[in-house]
Amino acid sequence: MSTQAPAMVDYQKPLDDVPYAEQRAARAAHHGEVKKRLESIAGPDRVSDSPDILARYSSDLSLEQAGRPAFVVRPQDTARVCELVRFANSLKMPVIALSSGTHLYGAGLARLGGMVLDLSEWKNIHAVSQRNRSVRIAPGVTYDQLQDALEPQGLRALIPLLPRRDQSVLSAHLEAQPMLIPEFNYSEPVYTAEIVLASGEIFRTGAAAVAPPDQTANDMVGPWGPGLDWNRLLTRSQGTLGVITWANIMAEPLPLRQKIYFTPAPAIEPLLGFTSRVQKKWLGYECFILNRANLACILARSPQEIDALQQSLPAFVQVFCIGGLARFPDERIAWQEADFLETSQECGLTPRTVLAEFPRAARFFEKNLHRCFPGEVYWKDARRGASADIFFITTMNRVPLFIEEMQQQAALAGYNFQDIGIYVQPIENGRAAHLEFSLPYNPADERGCTRMRGLHEAASRALFAQGALFTRAYGTWTQLAHGCNAAQQQTARLIKELLDPNNIMNPGRLGL
Amino acid sequence: MSLPNGAYEALANALGAENVCDDPAVTSGYSYMWLAYATHAQSGRYRPAAVALPGSTQDVQTIILLANRYGFNYIPVGTNLFPPNMPTRPDTIIIDPKRMNRILEIDTESMYAVVEPYVTYAQLQAETMQKGLTLTVCEGGAQCSVIANNMFQGMGGTGHKFGYNRGILGCDWVLPNGELLKIGSRGNARGDWFWGDCAGLNLKGLLRGDSGHCGGLGMVTAMAVKLFPYPGPKAFPVKGANPDFSAEFPADRFKVNLIKFPNREQLIDAMYEIGHAEIGVAVHEEPASMVLAGESPSVEHFWEHWPEFKKKWVNVLSVTLLGFSSARQVAYEQKVLDAIVSDTGGEYITEDSELWSCAACNLGEQFRTGGSNRLFRIAGDFFVMGGFGFDSLDQSLKMSKEYMWPLILDGIEKGHLAPDDVGNDWLNSYQLGHFAETEPLIYFEHDLAAGGAFMNGYVGTIIEAVKRKMTSSWPLGPMNYITGPAMCNYHELVKKIKSALDPRLTSNPGFPVPPEPPQA
Q1: What pairing do the DSSP bridges indicate for beta strands B73-76 and B92-95?
Q2: Given pLDDT bands bounded at 50, 70 and 90, which one contains residue A2?
Q3: Between chains, do A497 and B496 touch, taking CB under 8 Å as contact?
Q4: pLDDT digits (tens, 9 = 90+) for A7-36
Q5: Same domain, A304 and A359
Q6: Which of residues A69 and B295 earns the better pLDDT score?
Q7: Which residues of chain B are under the pLDDT cut of 50?
């Protein structure tokens, strides 16, 4: 029984000392003052509170609850970002920084209102160093833009599987999206970065800390420190620690020639074993496994083709690419190919340069492995209009267990398992794997969305219980993870409070 | 030096009397620190109040809880190599994990090993090689604690391929409040070890950095570390006895190349090309002093041969090739290396030459480092000049030439440092040449004057680095007050983190950053 006494209420006294009309006027005046100040910092044409614009930022392609910001601001430079953040801090107004055009997982929704800082127009590729294999980019740089800039210099950016055209490269890197190349030395691709902290101060990581880019004597490729490992702390922080204004990232040698192999199999187990062995031999570049549902969505020329195409494809296919670099490219391909094929024989598998069931696949991947998805409708949206994804880190040998669990969860929800896309991306030469289930659904069907929400949550819980590691903790995954690691959450809160005492940076995300 | 009333008894009751000791005969052993000799000078002032030997994570939690309750300080150590291990204030105990020396698990599928703090590289590597795996062994020597090195910076001889500061996976970390924080996949529902990143803020970022927290934020009691494929023999193939030994690996899978260049600029060009071609597993510039010290059975031998040897061994790059997949890989990489050497003006040191015989153990050293201990032979003490930073290969050379060697030559002229004026460093490529660091090795007498000169030089190079807007790594403890103001005031953030996690400042109080700047 509670010992707390109930609050005393004087029912005779008016509840409000100020008439309601005056309250509304005051609220509007406050909004107007804030807007005016934002405009004075960012420029009048760079601040918006029009309902149409706000509505656009209020939801994304996820099943997460919508959240409407009070303002959308498109600042032009870092100095203005600093001032905007300082001002927001003085009002304890949330700040949500965005850099991609399309948002997928709810991390950019203004759950507690506030100001969206849209940096997607920041398209500068500040500097490319061929010698140091680095490129310094602004938050709004997209993949095709970057690859176009790097290719003439014999370089390429690390890229996730066929991203959207408006995917920010910087976001992909800071969110640690899995890249197609599992090479260990490419797997922490952020060298240095600049971040505007909640105080409005600028902080730079690694070798960039000692001076701004225009004054430094460094090449800004040393990723460690200063002091602690800030890059690690910032990665996957979903904007809760500050606004990243640029990052210097790895740009890798562009192969002069490449050879792609498709290894089909009726089940995933033999491909997992084969992939592990190939990765431990440190062979090749791009390497991943797709099931027929994903492959059909990627390769179909139109949504109508998907089902028929899916029927004709092998259950699982490993895609593997060998690249020849500047020195003796053919010989590089030759020795790796020989070792790759030898390993496949040991595993009883038959890689082919052409996917017999769909010969156009070779040309498609040849052309698009380093690029954004070229189709008008994004491949994950092609089947039903949207996709609810569940992805996490596990080990290669546990992938089948999770697939089985997902199958059970789909059955329980009455969802057709055959429609679920499966993508296995080995990480760090097969030390671990990114496993991703894509569950297509129709976003226009409200009941369908509710059912999908239920399946997504139930499946996430079941997979978590089996050991799924949700390193990119979106939505309810944060609560799941923190539920069994309280010390992590308490310590994270301490760090957040130090860096952002007013909790203005994307509040509510990561459980902070 | 004594602990607060009741504290010793509480420690003895919790751990067992045999696992706690305050006998000066024992604690004096923890008051000596080779590198900080000059500043701490075996005065006895810095003898720890006691030494505690935990046997488990729970024991460590108990010690830390008692420290908070009774109000004494503690320093968690590994194998005691570096200055942060030594107490610099009263009421401090050492948490020595000698009893925590177990390899808890080796997972060959997901390529990791789980170790306790006293497990050394030699101990672990001997076991992993049995299973076709290896790891990059600390350049401080294979006698070092795997956990301590990974928390300091995870450096190793094969860092060109196996990375720098990249070894940490799941961890059990006892915080300064005594709570157990599970890092990475340790925090998932199954408590797995296989991955180092977790959901939510990635607190692994507090464990590693330039030089980690040096025991200033509690103690890691178990860690999973990354292992890598290894196609070599199950036992380290050593023949002979120190210093006359060699390591003979299968020639079709392991190949060391020693290459001389006309100047360091061309050597750096070759290192870049090697990185771009993505070949090699270990790529280092090897200074003459290091090679001859490894070869010398005595200090007399070293100095007798030094005048001639230093003229011959100049601008030498060591490149180790490893066939992870097959002999085909080594053959291809050798062909690429030959082309690079030709394009960049290098010349191989041939296997029948005198120079080659001096570096015969080079291949083995890359995989299991032992040579660093032999560097003490030259003058009694050695270390690397500070002020170097982790950045590009070009930048490493620039730092070395612009401000490190002028200071070293000055020290040699004044008689503080041993006369190694060759101008070569131990310069390392990490992660396929994505970044690098350079360490000019310096040798000095084991006395106060020379040690003081070294320390002043070390600090001097840090000052020079930040003055020139170059990055400076490894500013330990109070040195962060030099680098911090020049580097976005990171030291203030680190101090705040220290205060939040360790409000009483009981966990190695001066680290990672002391609460106040040093007084002049």
Answers
A1: parallel
A2: low
A3: no
A4: 676 777 766 678 889 989 999 999 999 999
A5: yes
A6: A69
A7: 41, 43
- Verify that A72 and A177 share a domain, yes or no: no
Chain A residue closest in CA terms to B512: A227
Mean pLDDT of A227-241: 94
B-chain residues near A491 (CB < 8 A): 175, 181, 203, 501
Check if the beta carbon of residue A505 is closer than 8 Å to that of residue B194.
no
Contacts of A202 in chain B (CB under 8 A): 488
Residue of A177, A220, A221, A341 to mutate for B, most B C-beta atoms under 10 A: A221
Residues 6+ apart with CB under 8 A from A492: A510, A511, A512, B200, B201, B203
Domain extent at residue A283: 257-369+375-465
Single residue among A118, A140, A155 that ends a domain in this structure = A118
In 3D, which of B333, B325, B304, B516 has the Cα closest to residue B432? B333
Supply the DSSP string of B244-312, one letter for each residue.
Answer: EEEE---TTTEEEEEEE-SSHHHHHHHHHHHHHHT--SEEEE--HHHHHHHH-SSHHHHHHHHHHHHHH
The per-residue pLDDT for B452 is 82
Cβ distance A280 to B468 less than 8 Å, yes or no, reads no
Which residues in chain B are contacts of A200 at CB distance < 8 A? none
Mean pLDDT across the stretch A41-58?
A: 96
Residue A331 lies in a domain: yes
User: Is domain B7-95 given the CATH code 3.30.43.10 in the classification?
Assistant: yes
* Homologous superfamily, domain B249-467: FAD-linked oxidases, C-terminal domain (3.40.462.10)
A92 and A135 fall within a common domain: no
Of B188, B197, B229, which has the smallest distance from its Cβ to A467's Cβ?
Answer: B188
The residues in B 241-300 lying below 8 A from A, measured between CB atoms, are 272, 275-278
Right CATH for B103-229 from 3.30.465.10, 3.20.20.70, 3.40.50.300, 3.30.750.44: 3.30.465.10
- Mean pLDDT for chain A overall: 95
Condensed to tens digits (0 to 9), the pLDDT of residues A161-171 reads 999 999 999 99
Contact B199 A276 (CB under 8 A): no
In total, how many domains does chain A have? 4
According to the model, what pLDDT value does residue A4 have? 67
Q: Which of B206, B335, B391 sits opposite A328 (nearest CB)?
A: B335
**Residue A214 reports pLDDT greater than 60:** yes
Bridge partners of B507?
B74
Domain ranges of chain B: 7-95, 103-229, 249-467, 477-520
Beta bridge partners of B319: B257, B283
- In the prediction, which pLDDT does B41 show? 47
